Automatic annotation (TrEMBL):
Protein's UniProt name: Lipoprotein
Signal peptide (from-to): 1-29
Biased composition (Basic and acidic residues): 222-236
Higher taxonomy: Bacteria, Bacillati, Actinomycetota, Actinomycetes, Kitasatosporales
Region (Disordered), start-end ranges: 222-246
Amino acid sequence: MTVIAQGRDRRAVLASAMCALMVTGTALTGCGGEDPDAGTNGVGKLSAEQIQRKTRAAAESVDAVRLHGSVVTSGRTYTLDMRLKSEGGTGSVTSQGTTFRLLRVGEQLFLKADAGFWSHDGDADAAAAEKLADKYVKVPEGDPSYKKFSGFTYKDVLLDGLLTLHGEVKKDGRHERAGLRTVRITGDEGAGGSLDVSLEGEPYPLRLTRAGSAGTLGFSDWGKDFPLKEPAKGETLDYGGQLPES
């Protein structure tokens, strides 16, 4: 019994010594540590630049996504909850305490809001606001509002602008979002933004913190289709010329 015990002790010491020689800063399966990439899609093993390319490719490969969170642009904060795909998008936008809905089908953009969104001083404005209230108002393509708001409804254009980290890109450890394991990459150690990428299934982006405190966004429902059609005629109003400034 003594001989067997001594043999086991020697083997244990030898195994520990071998693990100590093999460890290079990464946990190794079988050496007292769990492989952090076990059961993942493997992108955690890649460089930060490779992860960024992989997650962009994954985002571009599917047609639909839900985007929710805040974006700061031109000094104004917009809170978004949008569902987007190549044919258009639909959802809500909140800014300065006012919420309105956006719907784009093809090139047709509609905006729906209450009377407070449209109202200004004067009886004429009040009358126009009541007319426009709670209707899907068709936004003329030449109206300044079209360019301003349609940008929230174009999936590829929006993601291309958002999924950009500024400065030197590095990995920033393993994390978890919505119950999914992620690897985080950052630009300029976080000052240039950070992005959590899923380690489970496809390497979709799950959470973005924009550079310069310009908002935080979550991404979900990747590849999940949703109905998209123009509102019924009874719910729609074609204002004709340029919309009242809101």
